[in-house]
Specification:
Rossmann fold, Glutathione S-transferase Yfyf (Class Pi), Chain A, domain 2, six-stranded antiparallel beta sheet, six-stranded mixed beta sheet
Amino acid sequence: MLTNLHVKNLALIDELEIEFENGLNILTGETGAGKSIIIGSINLALGAKMNREMVRESAPYALVELVFYIDNPHIQEKLKEKDVYLEDGQLILSRKMTDGRSVSKINGETVTLSLVREIAGFLLDIHGQHEHQSLLYPQKQLEILDAYGGEEIQAIRSKVEEQYNLYRTCKKELESFQMDEGARLKEISFLEFEMKEIEEASLSEGEDITLETRYRKMCNSRKIAENLNQIYQQCGYESMSGAGEQIGNSVSLMQSVLVYDEELEQLASALRDVDNLLNDFNRELTSYMDNLEFSEEEFHETEERLNLLNGLKAKYGNTIEEILEYQENTQKKLERLNDYETQKKQAEERLDKQEQNLKKASQALSHKRMSFGKQLEQDIIKALQGLNFLETKFQIAFEQSESYHTNGWDEITFLIATNPGEKEKPLDKVVSGGELSRIMLALKTILAKKDDTDTLIFDEIDTGISGRTAQLVSEKMAMIARNHQVLCITHLAQIAAMADSHYEIAKRVEDTGTHTRIRRLSKDESVEELARILGGAEITPRVLENAAEMKALAQKKKMTD
């Protein structure tokens, strides 16, 4: 669950820190106090798009930090799969924003925003003010059904996706055979020319490197010879000044004095080693110089061979290995074109077979969805009855798309009738904003029982409702909060009265600046806040009595349900 929120230098917040509790956490406050900033800051930490104007004026940076305590083994395992490990059961997620840039960290380690967004899906579910509008889109409705089916549907979906990718590969292969006879013959002629050009070159791997080394040696042979001759003169035995002659004389002189002092033997041995090394060096140098000579014909042959190889590289690859690989692929293309009709027929057969595999997998997925769809229909009707949709009919209509997709061929539509005698129609043809909001709450309630998400956040889900409906929504929120941590921003006293923990968000003018503050309310303060919501500008003793009674009834309701 989300245990701590720390915000610094964001919009109207200079610095704010708050600890959340288990159960139902209610956040209330006057319009414009900054309630949306609280949810906005959580969204930012979880990877939402930001703009520079969000950083508080004159502040060098903005910071949002979330602390989660996670004891759910399933979520812990999901985090490990992403190479994220807890520290004492905690996960600290932060995002620092400055100069239009941001840095995200998980437990102090810098991570990408894409990883943060993946991790966010494991930790909490945020229902924003306008998210219920997404219910009008068929794709969202399909996502909801698949989420309801859980791992059973996901396992089949993975098979469908695998078969679909194979189907696309087979289809692409067959499309490559779509050419007329003239184009086929022209392509064969061109490929045969390329094959002949490469074959006639009789290439061998590594040949180009050997030739380039030899050619470089040939081009610089005069300079090499001049320098080596000079080295030979300085190190050899041709003159008295040569190092070989000098060291040879030194060896003789050392030998002549050894009889006078045996301690000189070690130095004499070292000098003899130098003489032997220099002898070996001069022999190898002489051998190299003898082999340095080459004919003009050899030079031209090497040059022409290199020009040929470089010409082939310009056409077919940067190395001999790449050219040979190109040759192998060209041979396969030629074989296919020369046996075009047979190859095409085989490609058609492969596509037909793979389409049957995909069809079978899509049918299995569709049947499983229909089975779960019947269950979801009943669960939604039951949940909606608890939200004051007393005579509601709900149906999930299935249609088969004209083509295959990565998630099968199903296209579904949520149909509803909210009044007796009416025929079920698509949601966008029937429901109002307030009704749509309640339908989304019903779905959240149903899905909350099936997923591992510990924390649910509702941002003003009470839009467009009041009276008895508001009371039923509050009871539904309290029910969800029995098994999940719930954070809810609300304007309704009925929902606020159900709070296990109640927080006030207020805007204050301090030191000529405007600041958003948040604090947890005591039981008495919670009643006063309920009175403010109920009574508006003037809070009379009667309003306070009503607020206290509403709070007491709400707590009693939670205890008895």
